[in-house]
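Suppose you are handed a protein chain with no further information: no name, no annotation, nothing but its sequence. What can you learn? This example shows the usual starting point.
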Amino acid sequence: MNKIKSSKLLTKKTLKQIPEFDNHFLVLQLNNSATKLHGYIAIHRKNGSLPSFGATRLLKYPSDKEALKDALKLSKLMSYKSALAGLPYGGAKAVLIKPKGKFSREALFKSYATLLNNLKGQFITGTDVGLTVADLDSMKKDTKYLVGYFSNPEKYTALGLFFAIETTCQKIFGTKNMKGRTFAIQGVGKVGSEFLKIVYKEAKSIYISDTNKERLAYIKKLFPKVKIIDVDNIHKQKVDIYMPCALYYTLNKKSIKDFKCKIIIGSANNQLESADIADKLYDKGIFYGPDYIVNAGGLISVVDEYKNSSINNTRIKNNVKKIQKIMSEIIKNSDKENISPERIADKLAKKIINKK
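A reasonable first move is to predict its three-dimensional structure. Written in structure tokens, the prediction is:
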């Protein structure tokens, strides 16, 4: 393996043993024992000299291999997300394994920033699960390959979800109006809470859950009408729209038996445990909005930040609103071919990526 300072470039021979490997452009294993930095950067696709975009997450993982698999799968998802959002950039992802015990966040992210510099702009990143704007602040002293300071990606991810839900409601209920709609939101972190700001006044009822009890209490104060549900039962609520806005694989062989909703659209990445879950949802008459389409608002906003010297909220909103057009096309072709929206989206994304 080739060495790039505190990282190792993983060979295709090694990676081919992992099912999630999709002929990725580059995969780096990160390791700095002094700062306890350990994880992976995966660049799925590159488009010429243009950078690839993907956020950085800091999470506990059951094993090193699971972290690598997550990086591979999420970077591929970012390529799909970029393609269907009409962006010319490839997809990437950084997955950092949260150290056990005490560690210095500042030191860890300082060493991570150095590794970003070694990639010389091939990878542009921002915050995902486990990272804060404060972490970005500590990194920006040492690297320029960061986005998400000014554009508020969580706000635009939530707005993109709203546009996707409007389009889907038009198909399912014959109206885009949110008045009288019922929601169950799994996870009220950054994106979930931003979405509440949009639909709270119009929605008939909103059920929420989160593993963070302090967060739930805070959200309840802000939005008194919401009803708190146990995390194990949030997906079982009889509602119009169920929204997975937490971690991955929550749509699986076990949970699919419990759904009583008409629509599933949420901000979480990799919501499906496997591709056939989308088919089963389709057969049950539940509309599933492909995650990499409906949650693309954040990516669209940070790309706008990267390309422009100033933030223009109207411009970003108009670009995020294009999600409606993509969703309409996916719905039309799903009806025409009588297959799940996920299968349609996958085919379209692959077609676009292969042309780059």
